[in-house]
Request: fold
Amino acid sequence: MADLSSTFAGIRTKNPFWLASAPPTDKAYNVERAFRAGWGGVVWKTLGEDPPVVNVSSRYGAISYGGTRVAGFNNIELITDRPLELNLQEITEVKRRWPDRAMVVSLMVPCNEESWKAILRRVESTGADGVELNFGCPHGMSERGMGAAVGQVPEYVEMVTRWCKQHTRMPVIVKLTPNVTDILQAAAAAKNGGADAVSLINTIMSICAVDLDLMSPTPVVDGKGTHGGYCGPAVKPIALRMVAEIARDRALSGLPISGIGGISTWRDAAEFIALGAGNVQICTAAMTHGFKIVEDMVSGLSNWMDEKGYAALRDFQGAAVPNFVHWDDLNLNYKSIARIDQSLCIKCGKCYAACEDTSHQSIAALRDNGARTYEIIDDECVGCNLCAHVCPVDDCITMISLPTEKPYRTWKDHENNPSSPDFVHG
Amino acid sequence: MSDSAGLINANFADAHPVLTSAQAVVAANRCYFCYDAPCVEACPTGIDVPGFIRGIATGNIAGAAKTILQENIFGGACARVCPTEILCERACVRTAEMGKPVEIGALQRVATDWQMAQGVQPFTRAPATGKHIAVIGAGPAGLSCAHALSLRGHEATVFDAKPKPGGLNEYGIAAYKMAGDFAAREVEFLLSIGGIKMQYEKRLGETILLADLRDRFDAVFLALGLAGVNRLRIAGEELSGVRDAVDFIAELRQAADKTSVKIGPRVVVIGGGNTAIDAATQAKLLGAEEVTMLYRRGPEHMSATKDEQEWAQTNGVNIRFWAAPLRIEQTGSALEVVTEQNVFTADTVLKAVGQVFVGEGPALESGRIKVEGYQTSLPGVFAGGDCTHGMDLTVHAVQDGKMAARAIDKFLGF
Reply:
């Protein structure tokens, strides 16, 4: 039985599954239900200064895709709309009752040292394990000079992080916004400010859909909409890339990363950890299915680790990072082509339509006595994978590597590259 | 109506009600939107199945309905009566993949029911051509042809021997497959295109004559169906209580109160086709205690599909294979059907051993009207549906009508 325990930024939990700062962690009632369900920790929904913010009615937008609900999700909710003292009391009580679970408190106050100092003192007295600085919220708060408005300016990230490190003994996790061009600058700023860890991604600025009757973006508040923060399964690829970018950066080496963004299953979590995350935070999957999903996350990750022979998370944490390279480090002499297992083919022809209409015309649609057969034209196939992706049958179309005598050759030293030493003038 | 009569009448309600919109979206999303889709090829009318299903999946139900109806104006009837398990759904790649096809028939019904509920057709007629075609027979073949002719700008007059239109849809199919007045409403929907006049209780060779029609109209389309039934050719066939299954089915379809149709507690049905299945199942639903189907060969030889056989059995019909009746005897008030192995006692014996063409005019071939490209031996006289050779499903008749209209159009010089 694999050991799923994780120590993240000095905070030890029995499993790496935390609930992200969001509506599911807004109050004691939900958090206690989460702990009973088996979550390793929570990041309490962001606290701010009194008086509390006011939230709108109608808060979430969602994308259904092919009948699957909530493939993508967005929200226009702000930070907690409950009084600060009430939240602090509940945090104190819940932490006392659940000492073995991580209680991290998300914070967002105006960009001045006194405000941060004051709230940190009060949070510290709750017995919380750490704080997460919300520099990511892309709507509502950013217009007031908080959230993403800070996260998008590396100098502010560094400054506020430094204040926090000066005014608390608690670990400081800096939550990063993806609404930037270069995630590394924000991460470096957090590190320079003394952050114990970063967490990412926060939500992405988005309009989920347009209500074509009301002619308004959704969610609709009295006939109008605003941009919201996008999350859910659809954003996982964006989050994975940003996590990996930080994980492979030499200057940021050793900076713990809490992976966030569309994690719905143990497999998603394993992917984030393989790309360097020390733990993961989840929100949309819990909001879609309830807290019980953590059971399968725990047992699924554990069973997979047993199968692979990983005794602890550190055994595979970051294992995929060395293989996340820049495009010009890829081998241009590598060649793979598609193979169709005719015994599994159900004759839907999706591979043919995709290849013929939109790719390289490397699949033949044949009729043998009326029976459909789809065959790869090896010489035309560039190994793009499209057919394998659109094929509805698992393992029917696979990509096989062709043996080659040629050496590993990248663009850096390719004869077509003008800046390569091997450049051949035309 | 008594309580028990009410319960029995309820048995003849829709056997498979229309999918809810939520069910339809789930079913539609199972479609892979195949290239060169096998289901399209398997549909005798060539409906673009993935095309219409995508419309249901995306909320474009008007587009879905038009896609269906432009190939098959009886899309609603076919959604109900087509043996999809041997046509589109057997060809569905989901069947090859996991033995569970996309519910194409049920989805087709969603779209066609929606269109009929709108009360308008998604088609407009071409400018008038001044041509007028006589169509004999108001069943699926005849009306399909009349509709296709109307779309092309021609006028059609449809003659039928019966007092109501619809042919087998109205008289020949189990009530629970085409519940309520669906068949009549579908014809009304079809006729709403305009340009089609209906003439009922006109029987060819009696109240109307082919020679006369050929004089009066620019072309004639014969969609006469099969007016006769095969005889058993065994002793006792003429006994009272022995009747044709098609008559029983028609009587039931036309009865407002199904309990007015009397068959007694023990029924024997002789035959192995869809008519036999419909008759046997309905006899059971009508309250008969013991319904036995006698078929002279094995289950694999039956023209009723496996699904149809199972449907009858699920409803309590006992199917006896390799049971050819030798004779029928009268014993007191009861009948006895004697086979080599057994004797089956019955109050009613229903014969369902096939129907035959009855009529004259153009040349016949093996008992049906001989056609080549829907053209009969008489110039300007076309034929299709059951009165010609070929497959005998509703959907085949619809296709015949549609294709014959094209042939007539060409004959008229368009």
Summary: The first strand of chain A starts at residue 6 and ends at 8.
